[in-house]
Structures are given as structure tokens and as C-alpha cells.
Specification:
Layout lengths: L1 H31 L5 H14 L12 E4 L5 E14 L2 E10 L2
Antiparallel strand pairs: 1-2, 2-3
Length: 100
């Protein structure tokens, strides 16, 4: 029973973890290009979401774009994912990240 429960939770959580790493990879790639404006960052993210079908939870308007002390673009993102496990029991995962 324990193994089955862990397997079911794992199958429900795995797609959200995969989405997080996909968003992280896209954000890192965009920041590495050091875009000049915030709209350019959002446009590149929107283009990436049309290619990366797994990105569902984050929109370009959810990105927080800033510059660090070295004038390098920093892109931050965050979202909460609620996963129904069984009956009234849910698992809440808070994803947070920023470009490297």
C-alpha cells in the first residue's frame, strides 16, 4: 500500500517538476541573451511557450524582470501548484526560481 501511494503521488508530481525545470531552462536561455527591454523578454518567453508545450502555469506577464549590479538581466518566476491526491487531500507545491 505504501509503495502504491508513493507511486501515485510521484506520477502526479512529476509533470509539475518537469514544467519547473523547463521554465528554468527557458528563463536561463533568455537571460543569457541579455535582452534590452522587458517587452523583449516577455516576447521571447511567449515564443518559447509555443514551442515548449509543457509550460502551462507561467505566463510572460508573471515574470519579474530586473537588472543586477553588473547590468545583467535577472528574470524571476513563481507559481503555486495544487495537486489533488485523494478525496479532500491536496498537495501544495510552491515553485520559485530565477535566472542564473
Amino acid at each position: 500500500i505504501i509503495v502504491a501511494t508513493v507511486a501515485v503521488v510521484g506520477m502526479k508530481v512529476f509533470p509539475t517538476v518537469l514544467e519547473y525545470y523547463t521554465v528554468q531552462r527557458v528563463v536561463d536561455r533568455i537571460a543569457a541573451g541579455n535582452p534590452a527591454t522587458v517587452p523583449q523578454v516577455r516576447q521571447e518567453f511567449d515564443k518559447a511557450t509555443t514551442i515548449e508545450y509543457s509550460i502551462q502555469s507561467v505566463k510572460s506577464t508573471d515574470l519579474v524582470v530586473s537588472k543586477d549590479a553588473n547590468d545583467k538581466v535577472v528574470i524571476e518566476f513563481a507559481w503555486d501548484k495544487e495537486i489533488e491526491l485523494f478525496g479532500p487531500v491536496y498537495l501544495m507545491i510552491k515553485y520559485r526560481g530565477k535566472s542564473r
